[in-house]
Amino acid sequence: MTHTREITTGQQEMLAVRYRRRYRLCQILTILGVLFLFALGTFSVVDGAYVLGTILIVNALVGLLNLYLLKRTGNIERAATILSGILFFLSMSLIITGGKDNTGILWVYPIGAINLFINRFWPAVFWFGAFNIASVLLLFTPLSTLLMTSYSFVETVRFILTMLALNSICLAALRSEEQAYQTIMQLHADDIRQMAYYDTLTGLPNRWSFKTNLERLLARAGKDKERIGLLYIDLDNFKQVNDQYGHEAGDRLLFKFSERLGEAIRPTDQLLKPQKESLARLAGDEFVVLLPNIKEPLDASAVATRVLNLFDGGLEVDGVTHMIYASIGISVYPDDATTPTELIHHADAAMYDAKNNSRNCFRFFTQKIADTLRQRQQIEKGLREALSEEQFSLVYMPIFDCKNNTIVAVEVLLRCQSPELKGIGPDQFIPVAEATGIIKDIDLWVIDNALQALIILRKKHYFKGKICINISGVELLNEHFPSKVKNLLEQHKVSPENVEIEVTETAFIADNETCLETLKALNELGVSLALDDFGTGYTAFSQLIHYPADCLKIDRSFVNDLFSEREARSKMVMVIQSLAKLYDLRVIAEGVETEAQMNYLRENGCDWAQGYYLSRPLPWDNLVKLLSE
Ligand code: C2E
Ligand code: CA
Ligand code: CA
Questions:
Q1: Residue ID of nearest Cα to ligand 1 atom 2
Q2: Is 536 exposed, middle or buried (CB count within 10 Å of its CB: 0-12, 13-18, 19+)?
């Protein structure tokens, strides 16, 4: 919308420039006229031409008054009219009196031209008409008795013809200037419309105009009992194209896709009337297709298949073939939704289902998705409530040193007592918190409370170990996060070496500057960093050296598979341990549930361990009891 504002400002500026130009013109011409009239008037009086002299001086005085009014009110139209009146009156006086030595008539030409140029077109036409009629009457009718001088017939005819020609030229110039202005203004207005309703990159309708279209269409479909299908398309791997080839290449790809999308929904299908309005770009790499008047929901799948086929063998842009695909969600009116917002929302949810399942496919909105959606909404509501009503709490999971079985650290885990979240653990509510942005508040709440707990543990219960705090991966893209952690550390006067921050390995985005910066900033605070769920992500092992990590937390699925038949799984713990040794990192095994697992880990040199075999996550009182034993 900032574009629109720029254009409107542009339009206003143009009007202002035009106003200033006319203002200056009126001002300068009046000043010149006043000086000229005073001089000529005085000469005439001195010369004995009292009538002419008086007329000229009175005109000059009116001119002065006009200048004053213009300055005070800035009303240009009035100033131009008064000035025109003066000039008209002056011309008539010059014709009637003949001016000095009968040269007055010559002065009428420039005066006429000026008169036309200070006006807009139509007032100028008026003055042009008035002047010519008045001069014809004066020169060719009995009114000529008013003349104080005499003109030959040839002189009068030449005068009238020249005046007509001159005035016509001036009017034509005025007209074309005005038209040029109008065209420019119209172009500006078109731009505003285009930018407000259409996406600048692809030229497709934008989210706003799409919603308006959809509202209209649904209202009509409701009356005519029609079905409308909506495809929600999201490109897969588009981000990689942007990252790898730059945003311009990304833009070109989006443009190309939008063109081909238009072609894909156009073909022979009689039941679809393809029009520009049935396509829209909602955001980044998200597009929608409207299928008005389909017979049954399955008709939409034919179009979805055609769209997916566009990506067969990748999408080529500027000679580079990009391996991108699409995930498509389909919802149908009135089967899946009755309002525009709901219809879009449900197609979006179906699209996520497609993305989560196998990508490059389409999915219809189903009851199952509806249930998931409802649950997510409920979780979101519960989370907001929990934040405002203090319904979060922490449980504490002791971490043991494998060599001597002492508690060396405590991991805090989040719980939520909100009634909406009954039976729902962090595994389910954290992703919702991440998707909705609530996570930022939650993470800070957890850190704040974990540090408070640590202080009590150290002061009252002589705890010497670390407190381990989980933070969401989204914080790695939040450049303000380290300074917030720093503030909390200072506020609670906690020394950073007693704090370990756990981030899941999958949150690490290779080559992402912000991500690396955040990690470095956290490291500089002096807290230690653990890569949680290690082994489940795709960290190239050689990259480990670039992360300022202190500890690898072996994912519990690998501990679980320690004695599995599948060698690739059972060996994973060993592989991670050797790796950790190589990079001088501490290793924590999580999810230790049996004595056999514990013995294996101890014998193979694992540093620390946690799991149900050693201790469940404990409420505060139980933790304190355990520590004092
Ligand atoms: P995580 O960081 O990997 O936490 C360990 C999870 O495994 C905990 O589940 C814990 O109860 C469970 N666990 C530990 N030992 C065993 C075991 O021996 N057997 C089994 N079956 N499970 C074990 P929880 O508390 O449900 O947490 C799940 C995930 O939620 C955590 O995984 C973490 O990613 C996230 N989470 C938990 N608390 C927080 C928090 O305060 N902030 C953030 N951002 N995420 C949190
Ligand atoms: Ca953890
Ligand atoms: Ca973990």
A1: 470
A2: middle
- For residue 540, the model assigns a pLDDT of 64
Q: How far, in whole angstroms, is CA 45 from its chain's centroid?
A: 73
Residues 537 and 498 in one domain: yes
Question: Does residue 383 lie in a domain region?
Answer: no
List the residue whose alpha carbon is closest to atom 3 of ligand 1. 533
Pocket lining: 91 vs ligand 1, CB cutoff 6 Å: no
Q: Is the dihedral of CA 343, 348, 353, 358 positive or negative?
A: positive
Report yes or no on 589 lying in a domain.
yes
Atom of ligand 1 nearest to the CA of 502: 2
The answer, yes or no, to whether residue 511 has pLDDT greater than 80, is: no
Please report the atom of ligand 1 found closest to the CA of residue 439.
Answer: 44
Report the C-alpha gap between 311 and 442 in whole angstroms.
40
Residue 469 CA to ligand 2 centre (angstroms): 7
In contact, 79 and 136? CB cutoff 8 Å: no
Residue 134 and residue 273 in one domain = no
269 sits in the region (left: phi over 0; alpha: psi -120 to 50; else beta) called: beta
Q: Is the distance from CB of 329 to CB of 351 less than 8 angstroms?
A: yes
- Cα–Cα distance measured from residue 283 to residue 120, given in angstroms and rounded to the nearest whole number: 46
The minimum-distance atom of ligand 1 relative to the CA of 426 is 30
- Give yes or no for residue 420 having a pLDDT over 70: yes
Q: Quick one: 294 and 361 in the same domain?
A: yes
529: left (phi over 0), alpha (psi -120 to 50) or beta: beta
- Average the pLDDT over 284-302 and give the result: 90
Q: Are residues 510 and 536 both part of a single domain?
A: yes
Q: Which two three-digit tokens encode residue 371? A: 């249930």
| 471 pocket-lining for ligand 1 (C-beta < 6 Å) | yes
- Total domain count for the chain? 3
Non-local CB neighbours of 260 within 8 Å, separated by 6+ positions: 310, 315
* pLDDT per position as a tens digit, 312-341: 888 888 899 999 999 999 999 999 999 999
- Ligand 1 binding pocket includes 590 (Cβ within 6 Å): yes
In which residue are the tokens 């005519």 written?
Answer: 224
CA atoms of 190 and 184, how far apart (whole Å)? 10
Predicted confidence band of residue 101 (pLDDT cuts 50, 70, 90): confident
Residue 308 tokens, joined: 């997916």
The pLDDT value recorded for residue 7 is 57
pLDDT of residue 274: 47
User: Which ligand sits nearest to residue 412's alpha carbon?
Assistant: 1
In a domain, 374, yes or no: no
Q: Is the CB of 26 under 6 A from ligand 1?
A: no
* Cis bond upstream, residue 292 (ω within 30): no
Tokens representing 359 are: 């990508």
For ligand 1, atom 37: residue with the closest CA: 413
Tell me whether residue 199 is in a domain.
no
